[in-house]
Amino acid sequence: MTLNLAVLISGSGSNLKAILNACEDQNFPAKVRVVISNKEDAKGLAHAADHKIPHHVVDHKNFATRDDFDNALHEILTTYPVDVICLAGFMRVLGATFISHWAGCILNIHPSLLPLYKGLHTHQRVIADGEKFSGCSVHFVTPGLDDGPVILQKTVPVLSDDTPEILAARILKEEHRAYPEALRLLAEGRVCFTPHGTVEIKN
Ligand code: GRF
To answer: Which domain, by its residues, includes 47?
Structure first.
């Protein structure tokens, strides 16, 4: 099965680029059908243009409420054949109504070993706490922030002289491997989101 993807971004879009590169392999079971950014200056939009992928800007500042923003996103998404929405450096919190409509079809990548270090300033907190390991998690999105069941994780060492920027760069390399791997597992039916809100792994 070829998964039809929508990728939502807010910034550099390095995870989008990793997904687009993976999709260039004819054997990769997914295709990006649309890219949407909430920031008109998101550098990631250039990746969509380079790959000739339809892309839109839905600026959250143009909407009176979060629900109005979510509804505008939803309207655009329904005009494409979307199976899975990939949040890739997308920095908006989506509302419960939007998430329930797309239940089990929204993935996110977070730069920590969830459920540890949800939220922002992940690397600073990991270093401040003296952690020896960190990493990234690809997870299904549920209404709780960075709270959905995890599909796949990659682990990296935290070195004594790490700065948040050095650690972020080490983890980002693993993110670019993790997202395509998680999408392949999903496309091949080897993971799925259960009605109980958990991940079922099928070998
Ligand atoms: C990444 O660390 C991602 O985990 C987080 O945003 C950062 C930037 O992602 N959500 P990208 O380069 O825009 O894909």
So the answer is: 3-201
pLDDT at 14: 98
Name the residue with tokens 């491997």: 177
- Burial state string for 46-80 with b = 16 or more CB within 10 A and e = fewer than 16: ebbeebebebbebebeebeeeeebbebbeeebeee
Q: What whole-number distance in Å separates Cα of residue 197 and Cα of residue 4?
A: 22
Q: Tell me, yes or no, if 110 is annotated catalytic.
A: yes
Q: Mean of the pLDDT values across residues 58-80?
A: 97
How far does residue 71's CA lie from ligand 1's centre (Å)? 24
Does ligand 1 lie within 6 Å of residue 164's CB atom? no
CATH classification at residue 130: 3.40.50.170
C-alpha distances (whole Å) from 20 to each of 47, 52, 180, 190 are: 8, 11, 9, 21
- For the whole model, what pTM was predicted? 0.96
Average of pLDDT values for 157-165?
Answer: 98
Count of structural domains within the chain: 1
- pLDDT for the residue 202: 85
Q: Report the pLDDT averaged over residues 184-203.
A: 89
CA–centroid distance, residue 18 to ligand 1 (Å): 11
